DNA sequence: CTCGTTCCAGACTGCCTGGTCTGTTTGTAG
DNA sequence: CTACAAACAGACCAGGCAGTCTGGAACGAG
């Protein structure tokens, strides 16, 4: 086997992820990706048969990392306490205490760039996003359902679970329009306080 | 003054809004807009000096309508009851009971398409979005602040106010990835229940 | 009716785009 | 050392893109 191309491939993916998160998919040209990654046309189309194929790889990689982070937060919450309601709090707080990668001003979510373009949804490029959404939903529905118990006026645990995803995506957008780097942290805090109130 | 061009201009704006909401701004070509609106290159560039200028007009128009809807919901909530907490509930419920335009499967938000592309943010195209965000924040902070009273452990009313905007945008994205048309309604319901719990 | 302005149609242009192709280098297997 | 395939580099291409330009049609003013 000849020289190793995985480093080049990773540089392309990293540059592409950054550019797509910042500018969107359609507004990002492969030439931009090539320039920023310091590679070439030949290298790009050697590793990815088309720009769309890059998008698919990108989404899959990002969604995998997203689910991994979910598991991590979930493990943390379950290790922290046995009380179901407190576990929900611990779960959200895990993200509140995250460093600048998630909370900073330049933070972005690849999902937004992909879901913005309907073509990428109908052709299946966004499928891994749905996979991640379902993973979040299932894990959190379990956690929240346990905290809700069997109250008669209990709200829909699945909707509450989905609302965590909703808060993340909505906060990313709000942060973009305001330019306020504290947005994500404040929204996560508000989410946690509301969940604590509804689970009380 | 010669013949009236406002109808043509409106057709262009309507088609463009639909296309941009569905496909994003960069992925929407001027030719597409021309075809869908049944006009021509000449008509388009007569009414809009550039594609970017179309985007600016589009965002301004959409944000104005958005703020108008805010005022409408606010007036409804204030007319419904005098109790501050119940006003918050009435406000959210106003949107829950909306018809398919907001809640249907094909519902979209122009804000997402615009905020996705950073260029449109830095060059000021997204400024009307910030105006709308601030309008929502101010009105809702007032409403929620009144409902919170002066409790010592009270959560940040501004963050809760912003969370309404966050819920809308996040739910739009969630609906896109799942394809479930009940998403928006369920998320609004969850938001209302959480607000009711935290304001109790 | 004439004149002038607005409104619009569509051919046209140059640039940028995603993608191809040819050639060269790099490493490994035998 | 030879052979061969993977890993690039960069010239090249066809199509699509935003934007221009010219000509004509539709009105109101005088």
Automatic annotation (TrEMBL), chains A, B:
Nuclease: is it a keyword of this entry?
A: no
Protein name as it appears in the record: TetR/AcrR family transcriptional regulator
Q: What is the lineage of its organism?
A: Bacteria, Bacillati, Actinomycetota, Actinomycetes, Propionibacteriales
Segments of the chain annotated as binding DNA: 29-48
What InterPro entries does this protein's entry cite? Homeodomain-like_sf, HTH_TetR, Tet_transcr_reg_TetR-rel_C_sf
Q: Where is the HTH tetR-type domain?
A: 6-66
Source taxon at top rank: Bacteria
Per the UniProt record, the source organism is Nocardioides aestuarii
Work out whether the entry's keyword set contains DNA repair.
no
Keyword entries, A-Z: DNA-binding, Transcription, Transcription regulation
């Amino acid at each position: 086997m000849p020289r190793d191309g995985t480093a080049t491939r990773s540089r392309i993916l990293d540059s592409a992820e950054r550019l797509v998160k910042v500018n969107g998919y359609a507004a990002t040209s492969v030439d931009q990706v090539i320039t920023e990654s310091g590679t070439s046309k030949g290298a790009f189309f050697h590793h990815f048969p088309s720009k769309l194929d890059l998008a698919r790889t990108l989404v899959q990689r990002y969604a995998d990392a997203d689910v991994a982070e979910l598991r991590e937060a979930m493990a943390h919450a379950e290790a922290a306490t046995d009380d179901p309601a407190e576990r929900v709090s611990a779960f959200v707080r895990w993200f509140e205490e995250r460093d600048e990668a998630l909370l900073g001003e330049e933070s972005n979510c690849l999902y937004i760039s992909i879901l913005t373009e309907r073509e990428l949804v109908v052709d299946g490029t966004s499928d891994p996003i749905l996979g991640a959404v379902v993973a979040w939903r299932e894990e959190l529905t379990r956690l929240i359902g346990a905290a809700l118990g069997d109250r008669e006026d209990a709200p829909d645990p699945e909707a509450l679970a989905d609302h965590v995803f909703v808060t993340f995506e909505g906060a990313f957008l709000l942060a973009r329009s305001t330019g306020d780097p504290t947005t994500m942290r404040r929204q996560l805090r508000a989410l946690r306080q509301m969940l604590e109130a509804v689970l009380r």
